[in-house]
Each structure stands twice: as C-alpha cells, then as structure tokens.
Design brief:
By secondary structure, this protein is mainly α. It has one domain (2-69). It contains 4 helices and no strands. α1 (2-22) runs antiparallel to α2 (30-46). It is elongated. The N and C termini lie far apart (41 Å).
Length: 74
C-alpha cells in the first residue's frame, strides 16, 4: 500500500509544480493540493490504513473553463 501512497504523493508534487510554473491563473488550487499532500505525507509516515478521502474523491482539472470541462464547444 505504501507504493500507492508514494505515487499519489509524487503526483501531487508534480501537480503543484505545474500549477506554480504553468498555470498562475489557477493559484486557487494550491491550498487544496498542499492540504492533500500534507495528508498523504502524514499517512505515509504512520502507514496505518487507506489513503485520505480528500485525495481519492475529487479530480482536479487545470486550465479548462467550465464549458470545456462539460464538453461544450468554446
């Protein structure tokens, strides 16, 4: 199970880097990603159960407005 946690941690770190460098207009997503990263790191340190719910339930779409996310033409 720790390998999955490490993979989630790595993906969150990459997402944070991409947001900072490539999507400055989406800085509103930094706080939730930092929170998820802290939760995963704490979970890795204790290694006592499933991944935190906040990490596994909500996908983050970066760089798309709401119409694009729904599949509507621009």
């Amino acid at each position: 199970m720790t390998d999955a946690r490490l993979m989630v941690r790595d993906h969150l770190q990459v997402a944070l880097l991409i947001l900072r460098e490539c999507h400055p207009e989406r800085q509103d997503l930094l706080a939730p990603l930092h929170s998820a990263l802290r939760a995963v790191e704490a979970d890795i340190a204790t290694d006592d159960g499933p991944l935190p719910l906040c990490v596994t339930t909500r996908p983050v779409v970066v760089g798309l407005d709401r119409r694009q996310r729904r599949g509507s033409p621009s």
